[in-house]
């Protein structure tokens, strides 16, 4: 109120009219005092994640990675202070909270798991010259629009599908299987539709040894998927390629079991859904043998085991093995910020951003080469691997050099599993 | 000064006129005192005040409960964004077809509803149905980006400007403020007009209104057209502010619900209601986020929204006709036009 | 498109439709008779689902049996809620009720999120994946049980409203509140009873749904919308109408997902809603306009 006082107080009546607005605004100021902008010894990074609302399962999974990141990065000698902010799965909140985070002294932002919020935050960061590191968001447009203060350490939808399809061919090759046909089934949401677009463009050129019989989009809000499975069953493909989220992946498998439809393989060419804790908890043995071709934590990297330990300590009741994609990419986003801060020696936005763009981090946790960024701010070195659920645990099965076990194909029947 | 505006101001007593002009003046000078975070909140406040006013015209004045107003803002945003992205037509020009198409949607809904005399909750469900059908259509229409979303490319700061709606927070602050003031003045002018009196008559006593020779069908249709036009213009501004559109967000029922909460909490049918409602609800959500963070830390996601829901129940339980009627009495601003 | 395929899709549509009807029964009572725009309907159902899940988790109580105690509990909650809070809103405008219920819905959703977390919870029933073969058709066991459950609940409600004095009084009250008050009926008590009854239905239905759908906090808004659609299509206050409308919408959605992308299937339910609103606004089984 002190700053707005002289102005609001110009006339007595005026002041009273504005009582409500003034009080609410001054409360907001009280709740969010601007921090001093002195050159800090440590880097203050805001973690913006959707921990309530529609995207809460994924947002909380990423958040567990952020908690582990604080501990591990401190152990590794980085001076970083992470503040946690909930975007409520709401683009407007993501934007206003990004403004607040920077007001309160955040010198870099990490988040936000989805593309809409990412673009909202990107604009704030662009205007305020504060680095923004996208942990997870697949819309190709993010790195195609010339944002100077944004980098993405995640694959675009197109890269996910291209790599995912290649790995399907490698899987069939490695197991000496000749499957004839596939159907592509995907959730008609932001991510699923982007994947469908990539699939339509890439499948004809991918030269795979099987035919794509049909692509079916389903409504992720639907109460059940029985009709979708009936359609699937009538096509009777060898492979079902899926792009799902956790909830509808569960519905899909259940309706397959009820309708006694047993494809030879269920493979995701790059999507969540098949490895969430919810999937394992609700389906038990039926969750086994699903395959997904996604970037994963490299089981052979020393930093992965360090992250796993930090994760277990910060989140004793959660399994790292199922959270590791979300947690791993979230951790790496903070690692990128901390590493750049160390090299730049300053938290000044443009200088820090230049250091981030010049990243070359060879030792990290996700599969693929060193973390670097191209001119657009995209990390081109992330590699997908094939991961299969074996005994309710995601297990890397391909490529052979980092695989911990061989893939199980064809998928055993639904009955008699343990 | 415009004669209508002059007439409207003439209806106010001295105290009210001072208060009103003081408020507008304070808001115009706002950016000199507000930091960027508070400005980003005020931008949303103005937007919700504008769409709330548009909804208020239909429900508060004419008594037609629309629960699908996201249809108009979504259509407005999508049409303008598509014309800009695909054909380079600037949003100020694209706003014309955007508003036209939104009004056409309003006319179709109005024609179906008012011709067959569908009112109350039935009308509300009809409007939800159309908004949901738009969501599903846009989700599945690849030309509009589908569920994967439609993105408005960034314009480098050097070329950014008002004409392309690509400026910074200051530009959008005044843009949204202008929108809120325009919709306020439009609502005030309409309410004082013959059409406005017809609307009030229809809201209070539809049978008596018919007996008086009011063409109810035409008056209701006019309400939906005006409301759709303002809401779709707001949708254009909003799309260029956020620079991305997703059907699951733009056409979601929850968006319509947030739009109408302001005017109801503020005071339905009053001109200040939507303004006060937006001034209460938007900052409230933000304050609760910061406050719960201080009080319970980051370990309990959902706490701030829970508090928001509870406060919403308290406000509506204790303010039978919204906040403004009681507040204006207490401030001595109650009588006549600003009611 | 083969005959078998169409037939099995129609059977699935009917079963899904009866589950839709089940979801809507409670709203049919609350919105149809008390005329409260209960926009927290889905949230109450989700709450019932969580309680059923807990009863199964702790006591291994089958959700179809848990429907009884949960219905009793929800009756009490509904009765008290009506007396303490909602009764002062009965005479108020629909939009005020609407905001009250939206506030309540936000509280319930985020309460569930805080207590149970964002992931869906699953009651692992021994029969949840059973299905029967009937010639070329495959019929899911749980959906049949839920369909039977919805018929039982509807018949019990119908019997209550037709055969008991209280039920008759409630119907009189719904038809004409003023007249009911004049002839000496205690409308406050009757409304509280009815709201309790409606919520008991939501509780029973929610419990039974737990066998088919895993509860999670973000499930509710979709269920609310679906329930309103079903109630309006079926006709306000008509329980048979709600079941019939559920089936109609279920079959329309199932068939439409055969001929177009399944992602567009809810277009069918909204098309049915618009058609009914325009051609027969009182609903298929509603009393004349």
Describe the structure.
The complex is a heterotrimer of chains A (418), B (339) and C (289). Chain A is of the alpha/beta class and 418 residues long. Chain A folds into two domains: 3-155 and 299-357, Rossmann fold, CATH 3.40.50; 158-294 and 385-398, Rossmann fold. Chain A is built from 14 helices and twelve strands. Chain A has helices at 5-8, 12-17, 19-31, 56-75, 91-103, 115-128, 157-174, 190-206, 226-235, 246-258, 277-283, 302-314, 320-344, 349-357, and strands at residues 43-49, 80-86, 108-111, 132-134, 150-152, 181-187, 211-218, 239-243, 265-268, 291-294, 385-390, 393-398. Chain B is mostly helical. Chain B has one domain (35-334): ABC transporter involved in vitamin B12 uptake, BtuC (Orthogonal Bundle), CATH 1.10.3470. Chain B contains 15 helices and two strands. Chain B has helices at 3-10, 14-29, 36-61, 70-87, 91-115, 120-140, 169-192, 194-204, 206-211, 216-242, 247-250, 253-267, 273-296, 303-318, 323-330; strands at 150-151, 244-245. Chain B has a two-stranded antiparallel ribbon. With 289 residues, chain C is an all-alpha fold. Chain B binds chain C through residues 59, 65, 112-113, 116-118, 120-122, 124-126, 128-130, 132-133, 136-137, 139-140, 253-254, 257, 260-261, 264-265, 268, 300-303, 305-306, 308-313, 316-317, 320, and chain C through 31, 37, 85, 88, 92-96, 98-100, 102-111, 113-114, 221, 225, 228-229, 232, 261, 263-264, 266-267, 270-271, 273-274, 277-278, 281. Chain B: The chain crosses the membrane at residues 18-34, 40-58, 70-89, 95-114, 121-138, 172-190, 221-241, 262-285, 305-327.
């Amino acid at each position: 109120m002190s700053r707005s006082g002289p102005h609001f107080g110009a006339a007595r009546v005026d002041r009273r009219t504005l009582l409500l607005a003034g009080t609410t605004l001054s409360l907001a100021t009280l709740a969010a005092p601007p921090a001093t902008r002195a050159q800090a010894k440590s880097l203050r990074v805001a973690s913006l994640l959707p921990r309530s609302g529609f995207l809460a399962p994924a947002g909380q999974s990423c958040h567990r990675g952020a908690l582990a990141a604080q501990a591990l990065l401190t152990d590794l000698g980085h001076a970083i202070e992470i503040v946690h902010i909930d975007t409520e799965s709401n683009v407007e909140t993501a934007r206003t909270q990004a403004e607040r985070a920077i007001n309160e002294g955040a010198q870099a932002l990490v988040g936000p798991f989805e593309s809409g919020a990412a673009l909202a935050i990107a604009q704030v960061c662009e205007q305020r010259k504060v680095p923004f590191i996208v942990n997870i968001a697949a819309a190709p447009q993010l790195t195609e629009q010339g944002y100077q203060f944004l980098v993405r350490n995640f694959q675009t939808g197109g890269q996910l599908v291209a790599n995912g399809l290649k790995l399907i061919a490698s899987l069939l090759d490695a197991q000496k299987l000749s499957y004839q046909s596939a159907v592509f089934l995907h959730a008609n949401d932001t991510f699923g539709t982007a994947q469908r677009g990539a699939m339509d463009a890439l499948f004809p050129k991918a030269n795979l040894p099987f035919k794509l019989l049909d692509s079916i989009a389903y409504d992720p809000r639907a109460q059940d998927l029985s009709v979708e499975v009936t359609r699937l069953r009538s096509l009777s493909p060898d492979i079902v390629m899926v792009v799902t989220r956790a909830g509808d992946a569960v519905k899909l498998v259940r309706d397959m079991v009820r309708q006694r439809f047993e494809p030879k393989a269920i493979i995701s060419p790059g999507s969540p859904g098949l490895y969430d804790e919810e999937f394992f908890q609700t389906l038990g043995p039926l969750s086994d043998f699903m395959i997904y071709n996604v970037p994963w934590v490299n089981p052979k990297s020393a930093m992965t085991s360090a992250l796993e330990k930090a994760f277990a300590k910060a989140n004793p009741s959660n399994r790292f093995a199922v959270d590791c994609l979300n947690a791993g990419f979230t951790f790496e986003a903070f690692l990128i910020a901390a590493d750049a801060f160390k090299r730049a020696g300053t938290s000044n936005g443009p200088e820090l951003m230049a250091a981030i763009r010049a990243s070359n981090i060879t030792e990290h946790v996700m599969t693929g080469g060193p973390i670097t960024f191209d001119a657009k701010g995209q990390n081109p070195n992330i590699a997908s691997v094939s991961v299969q659920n074996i005994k309710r645990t995601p297990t890397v099965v391909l490529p052979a050099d980092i695989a911990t076990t061989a893939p199980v194909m064809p998928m055993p029947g639904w009955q008699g599993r343990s | 000064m415009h004669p209508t505006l002059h007439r409207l101001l003439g209806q106010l007593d001295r105290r009210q006129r001072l208060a009103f002009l003081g408020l507008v003046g304070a808001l115009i000078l706002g950016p000199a005192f507000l930091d960027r975070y508070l400005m980003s909140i005020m931008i949303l406040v103005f937007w919700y005040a504008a769409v709330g006013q548009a909804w208020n015209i239909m429900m508060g004045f004419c008594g037609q409960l629309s629960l699908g107003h996201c249809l108009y803002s979504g259509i407005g945003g999508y049409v303008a964004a598509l014309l800009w992205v695909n054909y380079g037509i600037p949003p100020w020009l694209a706003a014309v077809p955007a508003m036209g198409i939104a009004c056409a949607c309003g006319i179709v809904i109005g024609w179906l509803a008012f011709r067959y005399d569908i009112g109350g909750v039935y009308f509300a469900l009809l409007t939800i149905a159309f908004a949901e059908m738009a969501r599903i259509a846009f989700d599945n229409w690849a030309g509009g980006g589908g569920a994967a979303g439609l993105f408005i490319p960034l314009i480098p700061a050097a070329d950014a400007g008002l004409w392309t709606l690509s400026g910074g927070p200051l530009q959008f602050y005044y843009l949204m403020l202008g929108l809120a003031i325009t919709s306020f003045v439009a609502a005030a002018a309409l309410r004082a007009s013959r059409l406005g009196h017809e609307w009030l008559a229809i809201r209070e006593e539809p049978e008596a209104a018919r007996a008086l020779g009011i063409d109810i069908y035409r008056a209701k249709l006019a309400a939906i057209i005006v409301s759709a036009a303002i809401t779709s213009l707001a949708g254009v501004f909003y799309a260029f502010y956020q620079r991305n559109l997703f059907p699951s967000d733009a056409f979601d029922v929850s968006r319509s619900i947030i739009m109408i909460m302001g005017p109801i909490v503020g005071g339905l049918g009053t001109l200040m209601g939507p303004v006060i409602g937006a001034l209460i609800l938007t900052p409230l959500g933000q304050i609760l986020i910061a406050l719960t963070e201080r009080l319970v830390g980051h370990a309990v996601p959902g706490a701030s929204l829970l508090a928001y829901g509870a406060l919403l129940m308290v406000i509506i339980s204790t303010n039978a006709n919204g906040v403004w009627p009681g507040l204006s009495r207490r401030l001595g601003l109650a009588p006549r036009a600003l009611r | 498109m083969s005959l078998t395929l169409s037939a099995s899709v129609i059977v699935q549509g009917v079963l899904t439709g009866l589950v839709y009807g089940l979801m809507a029964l409670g709203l049919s009572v609350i919105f149809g008779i008390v005329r409260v725009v209960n926009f927290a309907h889905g949230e109450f159902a989700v709450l019932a689902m969580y309680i059923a899940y807990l009863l199964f988790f702790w006591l291994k109580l089958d959700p179809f049996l848990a429907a009884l105690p949960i219905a009793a509990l929800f009756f009490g909650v509904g009765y008290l809620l009506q007396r303490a809070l909602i009764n002062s809103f009965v005479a108020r405008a629909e939009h005020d009720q609407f905001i009250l219920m939206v506030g309540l819905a936000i509280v319930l959703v985020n309460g569930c999120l805080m207590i149970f977390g964002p992931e869906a919870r699953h009651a692992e029933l021994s029969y949840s994946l059973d299905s029967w073969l009937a010639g070329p058709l495959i019929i899911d066991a749980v959906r049949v049980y839920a369909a039977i459950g919805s018929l039982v609940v509807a018949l019990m409600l119908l019997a209550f409203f037709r055969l008991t004095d209280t039920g008759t009084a409630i119907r009189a009250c719904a038809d004409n509140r003023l007249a009911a008050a004049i002839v000496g009926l205690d409308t406050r008590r009757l409304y509280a009873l009815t709201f309790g009854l409606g919520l008991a239905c939501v509780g029973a239905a929610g419990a039974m749904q737990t066998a088919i759908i895993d509860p999670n906090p973000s499930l509710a808004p979709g269920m609310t919308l679906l329930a309103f659609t079903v109630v309006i299509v079926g006709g306000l206050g008509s329980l048979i109408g709600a079941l019939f409308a559920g089936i109609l919408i279920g079959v329309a959605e199932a068939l439409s997902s055969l001929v177009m992308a399944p992602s567009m299937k809810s277009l069918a339910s909204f098309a049915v809603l618009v058609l009914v609103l325009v051609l027969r606004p009182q609903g298929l089984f509603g009393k004349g306009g």
